[in-house]
Amino acid sequence: RVPAGVQQRHRRFAACDVCRRVFWEGSHWRRMRAVVDAMRAPPPGAPDVPDVAGA
């Protein structure tokens, strides 16, 4: 279910109980993480506001 090269490069995998697909933190995950991080970042020139997510 997981390509051999992927098994050699990654240690953590997750399987979906519904669709039975296997997922790992590969290149798509890294690109999507960068998109999410950029969306969460304050816009340039925005005032410094405390992070309330951890409060």
Q: For the CA atoms, what is the radius of gyration?
A: 17 Å
The portion of residues forming beta strands comes to 5-15%
Structural class: mainly alpha
Shape, principal axes of CA atoms? elongated
Note the total helix count: 2
Describe this structure in words.
The protein has a two-stranded antiparallel ribbon with strand order 1-2. It has 2 helices and 2 strands; from the N terminus they run H-E-E-H. The protein has helices at 4-9, 27-40, and strands spanning 14-15, 22-23. The longest helix has 14 residues, at 27-40. By secondary structure, it is mainly α.
What's the gist of this structure?
The protein is mainly α and 55 residues long.
Question: What labels describe this entry?
Answer:
two-stranded antiparallel ribbon; Mut7-C_RNAse_dom; 55 residues; Twitching motility protein PilT; 2 helices; mainly alpha; 2 strands
